[in-house]
């Protein structure tokens, strides 16, 4: 009788101690890990910052009025100690033309370039375009940086635009103008 009575008592004793053991487990593990300590990882030098800092990397023109050309301007500053040359502007579409007055910028000098889309032959609706600006220090072709730029525009439905806005039609004789 004692062997059968001792098993239920030992099981009930462990059941009553189980919540206490579970509640003490985080404290015990915390103590063990504090004794072992953490191993610091070797410090990594920060990645070098690119020399050109753009004010914005994405331009949203939103819904635009019907006109022939739409421009997205990208402004930047040369934060390096060297002259930087904008070597190439690769656009995602042949319908985008690039406009920049200069390609070399001195240290701490501001610059800009524009991307132009001609909307006359484009379908209406939301359009997204990208441009990869490739640049680097003057005289160091082996050193190169890239900036991924984007712009979007909502082109309106096709329409006819008359410039100037007023068109006067008159005939040199007394006949009535019907068209």
Commentary on this structure:
This protein has one helix spanning 2-36, and strands at 52-54, 58-63, 69-78, 84-91, 96-99, 104-105, 110-118, 125-137, 145-155. The longest helix has 35 residues, at 2-36. 12% of the residues are buried. The chain is elongated and about 125 Å long. The chain has a 5-stranded mixed sheet with strand order 2-9-8-4-6, with no helix packed on it. A 4-stranded antiparallel sheet has the order 1-3-7-5, with no helix packed on it. Helix content is 20%, strand content 37%. It is α+β, with helices and mostly antiparallel strands and 179 residues long.
Largest sheet geometry: 5 strands, mixed
Q: Give the C-alpha Rg.
A: 35 Å
Major β-sheet strand ordering: 2-9-8-4-6
Shape: elongated
E-strand count? 9
* Alpha carbon gap, first and last residue: 120 Å
Low-confidence stretches: none
Which structural class matches the secondary elements? alpha+beta
| Percentage of residues in helical conformation | 10-25%
List keywords for this structure.
alpha+beta, five-stranded mixed beta sheet, 37% strand
TL;DR of this structure?
This protein has 179 residues and is of the alpha+beta class.
Question: What is this structure's SSE topology?
Answer:
Layout: H1 2-36, E1 52-54, E2 58-63, E3 69-78, E4 84-91, E5 96-99, E6 104-105, E7 110-118, E8 125-137, E9 145-155
Parallel strand pairs: 2-9
Antiparallel strand pairs: 1-3, 3-7, 4-6, 4-8, 5-7, 8-9
């Amino acid at each position: 009788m004692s062997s059968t009575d001792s098993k239920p008592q030992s099981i009930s004793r462990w059941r009553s101690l189980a919540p206490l053991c579970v509640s003490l487990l985080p404290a015990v593990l915390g103590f063990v890990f504090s004794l072992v300590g953490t191993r610091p990882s070797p410090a990594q030098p920060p990645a070098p910052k690119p020399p050109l800092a753009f004010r914005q990397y994405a331009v949203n023109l939103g819904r635009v009025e019907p006109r022939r050309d739409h421009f997205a301007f990208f402004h930047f500053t040369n934060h390096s100690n060297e002259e930087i040359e904008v070597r190439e502007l690769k656009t995602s579409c042949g319908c985008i033309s690039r406009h920049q007055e200069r390609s070399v910028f001195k240290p701490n000098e501001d610059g800009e370039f524009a991307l132009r889309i001609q909307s006359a032959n484009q379908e209406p609706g939301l359009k997204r375009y990208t441009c990869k600006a490739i640049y680097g220090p003057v005289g160091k072709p082996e050193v190169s940086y890239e900036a991924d730029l984007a712009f979007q525009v909502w082109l309106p439905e096709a329409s006819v635009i008359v410039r100037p806005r007023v068109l006067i039609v008159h005939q040199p004789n007394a006949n009535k103008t019907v068209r």
